[in-house]
Structures are given as C-alpha cells and as structure tokens.
Design a protein that fits this description.
The structure holds two protein chains of two kinds. Chain A is an all-alpha fold. Chain A is 47% helix and 0% strand. In chain B, helix 1 crosses helix 10, helix 2 packs across helix 4 and helix 3 crosses helix 9. Classes of the chains: A mainly alpha, B mainly alpha. The site of one zinc ion (ZN) has 6 residues of chain B, from helix 11.
Amino acid sequence: MESISIQSSPGAETLTAVEIENLIVNFIATNLEVDPAGIETDVTFDRLGVDSVVAVKIVMELETKLGREIDPTAAYDYPTIETLAQYLGSPT
Amino acid sequence: MSSDSINSPATEASPPWDPESVFSHRTLTRNQRIHAIAITSIPAVGTIIALCLVPVWGLGWLEIGLFLGMYALTATGMEVGFHRLLSHRSFRVGPVTETVLVICGSMFTLGPAINWVSSHRRHHAHTDAHGDPHSPHLHPKTFTGRVMGFIHSYVGWIFGNESTNSASYSKDQLRNHRIVRLSQLYYYWVLLGIALPAAVGGMIEGHWTGAVVGALWGGFVRIFVSHQAAYSLTSFSHLFGSRPFKTRDRSTNLFVMAIPTWGQSWHNNHHAFPSSAMLGLRWWQIDPAGYVIGVLRLLGLAKDVKRPSNEEIARQIARSRELSSARS
Ligand SMILES: [Zn+2]
Ligand SMILES: [Zn+2]
C-alpha cells in the first residue's frame, strides 16, 4: 500500500485505475486516521467517512496528482473508490 | 452526577495552526453561499408574511404553541445534540437518542451536523485568535473595524468563502456512518422542521389554515428567531457580559440570553469547562439544555454526564481573581 511511487508533478500524469485506487485509499486512511486495509473500494464514499467536504478534498488531491482539472461532482457521479478510479484512470 | 476530571483551557496553549484545516474551493463556497442566502432570507420573508397575517387570523395559542414547541425541540437538538453531545462529547447516549437529537438539531437549519461540529471545534481551538471562524475581535480597532467585526461575528461569517475541513476537526464523527448519513440528509430534516408543525397545525384546526399557521410559526418564524439567538452567541457572547473565569479568549456570561440560547450564553463557563455537559454552574444560571440532559440521565438514556467538581470550579475562580488582581 505504501509503495506507490507518485510524484506530484505539475505536468499531466497518467495513472492506471489501480494506482488511483491506492491513492484514494491512502488519502482516506491518512486523513481519517484509519487502517487502509479496512477500506473497501466497492462501497459508497459515505460508508468510508467521506462527507461532501472530504469528497472535495479528494478531488483536489487527485487534481494535483493527475495534473488536470476534475469536475468536483465526480465523487457523486462515481460514488465508490473503484468506479471513480476507473473513470479517471488511463485505459490499460 | 459523575464529575469526570475536566481540563480547563485557561491554562492550555492554543493548538498549532494546521494549514489543511481550512480551505477554499469554488464548489463548496458556492453551496455555502446559496445555503447562507436561503437560511437568512426565506425565514425572514416567512416571518413578514406571518406578521402580516396577524391582523387577519389573529395571534392565538396555536401560533404561540407551535412556535414554542418547535423552538424547544430544535434548540434541544442544536444545544444538546450538535453542541454538547457531538462537538464536546460531554455525555453518552445510545444510537436512537443520538439520531433523534441530530435530526432535531438539523431542523435548527444552521447546516449539517458534521459541518456545524467542525466549525464549532475550530472556534474552540482558536477562540478570538487567527483561525476562529466567527470572532468579533479580529478586525482593526477603529470604529468601522469594530462595526465590521460585529457584523462578521453576528451573521457575516456564514457568507464567507472558507470551508472547515471535517477531516481535520471531526474524524470521530466521520467514522460514524450514521452521523455521515444524517448529515447528508440535512435538507430533508430542514423540510421536516416545517412540515411537522404544519401537519400538527392542520390536524388541530382540521383546516388548511392550521397547516399554514403551523408552517409559518413553527417553521419560518421559529427559524428566524432561533437564528438570532444563535448569532448572539458568536457575537454578544464574546463582547458583553461578565467573565468570572479569566479564559484566554473573550467569552462572557450573559443572563438575558440564557433561555433563548438554551443555556449556551453561559458562554464564559463553557469556554472555561468545554467538556462539561452543564453550562449553568450555579443554581440560578438557567440552563435548559442542561435540564434536558438531566432528564435524559434520569430516564437512563444519557450516561457519563460530565460536570466539573465544585472544588475545580472554586479553584478556577480563585485563579481568575489572582490573575485580575495581579493585573490591576
Ligand atoms: Zn465561544
Ligand atoms: Zn462549544
């Protein structure tokens, strides 16, 4: 979980869905101080303690990591880690 | 009453500023502003309509009863639920009691539970200092500065572009899925706060006019008046009144606002003992929310009700006297 190697670069970064999943899991684990192993990727965000404010924080984090703008409603349209990562990830 | 040891913040240093704890994002700012405009303007318009109808329909027990009933219910939800339970965890309840309190607090219409808890905890972490979301003391010490500071602390701050990061201040509540869901359903609870008195009014009158009276007096007028009491806490309660405890902040005790604020205007007591479930520390310090918690405790619904011991209160008072005599 800790071994993802992503540098926040200003340029466009292409990450796979799996890498983005790890990114979101780590973000939630760090910010809510929970065990990343307990974070399920196929349950809705509210079950993971993500309210509207934290959802925006996740989008902001992904914007810096991916180097592109993301619609802030993405977390509503794709309400699980898995679907959001699939939507944002590059096709592999 | 169990008197769990309570730390007084009077001696504690302010926590370091966390740059992640407050941020600004266009979507959240827009939603907050729409909310702020709606909750200030709609109840005001409803209150004007209600007052215009007084010469036509009169002002009877139905209007007063629904107003007071809904006021007590939502003030309990706000002060007992959002404030003393969720924000300060000054007592414990079961999930059903907690859910009922949070729904009633949401009907108060000052934002979802988690948002309210986060900004309130930020107020306690940085009271009257940089980072306080609604201090009247952070503007220049000129006449205009003071006026602007007052307006900001009374209601202006809710129109601001800042968002308090719930992940910084409310990790405990975010980990509680029920509280997250109840927060997400906020607008339904707001509507319930208008529909409930409308239904009761309609049933009592057996006529549609009863429902209109209920929505107006139990809904809009009640929201408008209770909000003025809430705004007085962020402004008056840090400006005017007595300060028996020389806390680091400028919080005050204000007797006249005790009943409308459901006890929170014993605000200097509160900043001196933030984790106390009782804000009235003397018998004459009227504390409606404290009485509700007392009843919940007698019913076996509230446990571990925290209150500072008399010795602890006496010690703080003595320390405050020393501080003020040392100053003069
Ligand atoms: Zn205060
Ligand atoms: Zn408080």
